[in-house]
Write a structure and sequence with these properties.
mainly alpha; elongated
């Protein structure tokens, strides 16, 4: 089975925005809304992890000056 390509930070952020818009603007069945909520939560955690890693790298770069 072909492995799925890892999405970039920007692609993940766009996907999260799509989920938020869909949940806010559409009348969804509860099960679909819950699935989207879960997916959004996972994206938020992943995006936050990426931001934390970038922040740590920037702090290291600043400390090396």
């Amino acid at each position: 089975m072909e492995q799925e390509k890892e999405l970039s930070f920007e692609e993940k952020l766009n996907k999260l925005n799509e989920i938020v818009n869909k949940v806010e603007n559409e009348l969804l069945p509860l099960d679909e809304a819950m699935k989207l909520y879960e997916e959004g939560n996972l994206l938020i955690k992943d995006l936050q992890k990426t931001l934390n890693e970038a922040e740590a790298k920037i702090a290291l770069i600043k400390a090396d000056k």
